[in-house]
Fold each of these.
Amino acid sequence: MMLSPETTVAILETAISLAGLGFFGWVLMSPAGRAARKRPPRLPPWEISRIDFFFFLWLVLGLAFFGQLLMQVLAGDWLRSQREGKVLEIIAYGSVFHFGAILAWVVVQALMRRRSHSAGATPLPRAAAGHAVVRGILTFVVAVPLALGAGALGVYLLERAGLPVERQELIDLFAEVRSPALLAFMAALALVVAPISEELVFRAGLFRYLRTRLPRWAAYLLSAGLFALLHTNWPSFPPLFVLGLIFALAYERTGSIAVPMIAHALFNLNTLLLVLGGVGG
């Protein structure tokens, strides 16, 4: 008997959650897990000046603001006139932010290397590609049940407070899009571009800068909180906040930004499968 897409996705989600809880329990309870937790983090301090760091933040925000403003002036009317205009607008403005953030990172790194005052002064440990993939998968597997639990708690608290519970608008748009080309571009943005840009800004940028200049707990909370606020949706704030904490921990422990990037991409893929499978998101 063929299983329905909803049943297949639900079984897969349950399996991932059980595996994540099992691995999380192993890390907490087993001698090997406890020994791993005692190892020092592999992420070195970021030797960047305050001016360079705030220039990076200014560049991210400036490119996002002026890029979206330029998009509105040059293409706003055309986007709204299209059959799937609302989707196109959200994708266009989101693309401006994500590609702008990546450009800002590249520009700042290039300027710092040119002045011989870069993060390369304390080189990051280079994890083998295979190790980064495995650690990214394990991070994702642990993140799924914890994020689901945080999401359920957030929905419960909002309902108790009498506040509306709505999914992120982009999640609903994924379910409504009919154009294969548009769906493919949205998937590429969610699975490749967004994980790269958001991890560069919030983990490789904000978290790494703050962790040696503020108490570590403050670096975790601030970077995760701003990451969750970026998505401007209250029901999604608790799970995204938890994801921000987990991704920062994975980055700090491994010293490789590829690890949270991979975990982030897999989590977005998981959400996309839930939506397309009719389970939720």
Amino acid sequence: MPIKPIYNRAVQPLVSLSYEELSDGTGFIVFYAMAGTSEDMLRTSAIASNAVTKFATTAATSFTKVLDVDYDSEFNIPRTLKGKAIVSISHGIADCTTSQTYESYIIAILKHFDGTTETQIGTVTSDTITYTGAGLNEGESKTRALEMEVPTGVHFAQGETLRLTIEIWTKTSGGGDSWSGFGNDPLARADPVTVGARHKVIQTTETTKLELHAPFEIE
């Protein structure tokens, strides 16, 4: 009787590239930032976040860091960074009951974490949102694509972590409370806070999705 042929199944990569830039031989992995019940994460699949936005309040009259959030992804195969990362993020500010000017900006930081030591890879600062409120619990938000230069050759061994840190810096002109924050929902659900409420930081015209497009060597 004839012998049945044996077919070898190809080994599937544990982390696949989302897309490639053919001009420079760079492959990108798109990570979605999300809030879990116990930690904030970077994942390659779009899953509903435990919270659609992150927000905080301040009455400071000089720029003050009101949010500092780490999103982590642990690598299960080695990868090496190469090129320019992109952070796509929506960020906003809302007034409370005082008519004054509110200002806020983002700092996005990419880090390598080996389980003990955290090393900064790159950073980028956004432009500043300026909103003059009338004490009506209204606000303004903006979606940006922030480009971040990262040094070529930053290696992530198995078990090491890629970390995206998002900082929000905010101030007010007269000391009245303001709310500022950003979206972190991979499904881009609308900010659930009712229009006119104090902490609706992402307006309906903007997405709540937060993405990191991380560049890696094609291996």
Amino acid sequence: MNTPPANAAADTAKPFISIVLATYNAEDCLPVFLESLAHQRFNDYELLIADGNSSDATTDIIKAHESDHLHWFVSETDSGIYSAWNKATAHTRGEWILYLGADDTFGASTALSGIADDLREVSNANIALAYTSVTLLNALGQEERVLGAPFPEIEWQLNHGMPIDLPHSGMFHRGSVMRSTTGFNESLKIASDYEMILRLIRLGGYQIKYLGDRRFLKKGTDGISVRRADVAVWETMKVRQGLGLRGVTPVWIAVWIRAKLRRVFRIALH
């Protein structure tokens, strides 16, 4: 069911940021996300929610969410998070789009306003992606590590065919580009955001900009790519092959083997 808010028709203003949220049986974490968003001092945004036909109280929570910022909402069966994001993209109006999952939460009340100030400085229209760091939380809700490296490191990872230290929840996509390009590849379960980056900056000629270590958002451990790192590796290789880009290098293989050995030794010591 496609359910725009009652005031959607009258609201023709284009917001600066479109926040696209994918949900599925998220009754436990969705209220936390919505509360963190409500506490933001930044108001020039719209919220779009694509739900995968949840069987719990998720849709009830969304319908009860009273906010002028809720621009679009749908609840119907989909093929996963990328399908949900693609559905919502066509309804976005923002200059920049932020794609999130329900287990993401904003940090300080100034998190969005600080990022918006940075984005307003991005005057080059050829920059299609701008990103910052986010904090990864463990199962206990404690800060585990920071995701989102400076671009020289990201570029090095891309050149060697590695999965990149660039979480989708810290990445802002230029709205005009996303609304005019082919959406996320729904045949991929984990690496479609990686493929989007390659399509835009390696094949499309667009640029990417690092906004600095802002840690504006906290990411839960329920993220698919966090939980299934090995699948992400193989999908990364599949993506590069499909786009006609060079595969993994000996450097990547050495790094991967070293990481595996470290994990084995760590398990053995415990």
Amino acid sequence: MADFSHPLLDYRQGPYACSETRASVVYLSEALTDFLVAASLAGLTPVIVSRHDAELTFALRYYLSLHGGARLVRDASREFINPATGARGASAPAVLDPATDLREAGAFSATPPPLTGYPAPEVLTASVALSAHFAPHDDSRVGIAADALAHGLVDSTVLAWGAHEPAALTWDVDGFTNFARAHMPDGIRAVLQGGGGAFQAVSIVRRTRIGIEETVLAQAPFAQLGTSQDELAQRAASVLESITETLSMPLVGSLTITPGWRQNYAASAPDFSAVPAAFLIGPRAVRALDANLSALQATHQISEAGRKKLPSLIAGVGRNGTPPWQEALEIAEAFGAEAIARAYGLDREER
């Protein structure tokens, strides 16, 4: 850890490896991808330090989180600012170190004010997490989960992909499948784009004990600011339902809503709280949960979708004035924590 060096390492402060950029938009470049991996492998926390009005792409934010990294900004005073908390200090440890009592130091705001210099949110953004299972056959093709999601969100296929930004490869499901297959049994992660940049996603493909799993984390503009929760839940449920028409074995999916921007960049401001809009429960989990569907449908907006013999369940939450998180909790409690853990294999110890 003491000997860590990298072309993008500007300085190291304690356990934090800092790379500072003055770019207005920070992308997940090949070099930055390598920096995040190298710093985390060295036992350090990678930190991206940007100017106060900079924006980070969806892919970079995901990879930064994946490698346990952090994001700081510096304003005209050259102080470090943690946009997640509003904490200010003279160094990265001063605003990131969990041992630092920021409240006593007077540098912490429980409700930090938005940082200046970035545009106000323009739209409501959908953040989607979707996993699907594929049989380990020679003719199985991955990438169709991402395509289905792009169709549902922006009415477009995925158009480009790559290991980092810019996603320079023209999208081709067969080519993507061959790339994933060539890296088996190791998994792959890829950046995906579609809809003129409106659809931004990261796809993770990996082998499991019983087949192949494709997980897609995506973001796209979804609705106008001020759209009612009823309408959001209805449209979100429709998006997830459309996916079940393409995928024979979806596993689980969720769609949450946050204020955002049309280009899916995140400004240097405290994160907005996500509000759930809809969930998808795949056929395998539905069968394992063995829930009383009629009883659930009597109190919640839950419907069957996909194949008739092996249906998925789609739940839109927050309709009819019910707080979305409250309804999501009620549905989870109706299934039962033990049943959910059993359905998704969370009750099994890792071997």
